[in-house]
Amino acid sequence: MDPLDAPGRVAEENPDAPGSTRRVAFVDSGLGLLGYADALHALRPDLGLVLALDPDNMPYGPRTPEDVQRLILASARATLPFEPDAIVVACNTASVHGLEALRAELEPDVPVIGTVPAIRPAAVAGGPVAVWATAATTSSAYLRGLVDAFASDVETHAVAALGLAEAIEAGDDAAIDDSIAYAAEHTPAGVRSLVLGCTHYGLVAERIVAAVGEDVTVFDSPVAVARQTLRRIGLSPDAAAPEGGVDGVLLSGRTGSLPESWRAYPAGERLLRAAAGRHTLST
């Protein structure tokens, strides 16, 4: 089953209910969740957002599956005092190793939505297809399974974007450009579709497009995940809904605040604007 598709609680939409606040929590080791929270905010700006990062333990890629599962369970549990209507696991590694355990613990009360690289729509659009991902993901059975399931008849290449997630996390522009240039150099000529296989990469999508050329279509999954999240909680997109914002930021389970460093990325800038003037709840 696609990690985005699973049964669970569907709340009835009642936007006129007095005093009601709908919230969605996002969990990831780091900044990869920004693009996903931003996409949901664009579709339903009235939803409160809870952003749970894990700076003490990132990155998750080199960790064992058991360790990743333990950490993502801890991050998700830390969001529960905010009473989220759903939790989005905005990390491919955590979705692979922790989604089943999260759903077993939290559903049907709290729907859990995972993330997967957008290989299926890229394959439909036509190959050859390249998948940029971390070194651990490019060599994983998980990625091979996705390619076998959704792109078995399309020429597909896994490309390790070495150091890109770490550079994005650090906000190191020179290192970001170096990592993008390395991955672009190792992307076979003639590729028509490029899948971003790490949730961090979408934060620098414009720079990736500039490196690979406009003839290559870049596929990412934040909008698809946002739409699936709305379906799971019984809401429809409404970009004109009253402005909500960020209700909470958690850093390895501790209450934190939105750092100004997020302004380095358009998604972070938009979330900071959404949070401006809004009282941030504490747990």
From TrEMBL:
Matches recorded under InterPro entries: Asp/Glu/hydantoin_racemase, Asp/Glu_race, Asp/Glu_racemase_AS_1, Asp/Glu_racemase_AS_2
Keywords recorded for this protein, A-Z: Isomerase
Region called Disordered, residue ranges: 1-21
Native organism taxonomy: Bacteria, Bacillati, Actinomycetota, Actinomycetes, Micrococcales
PROSITE patterns: ASP_GLU_RACEMASE_1, ASP_GLU_RACEMASE_2
Name of the protein: Aspartate/glutamate racemase family protein
Name of one Pfam family that matches: Asp_Glu_race
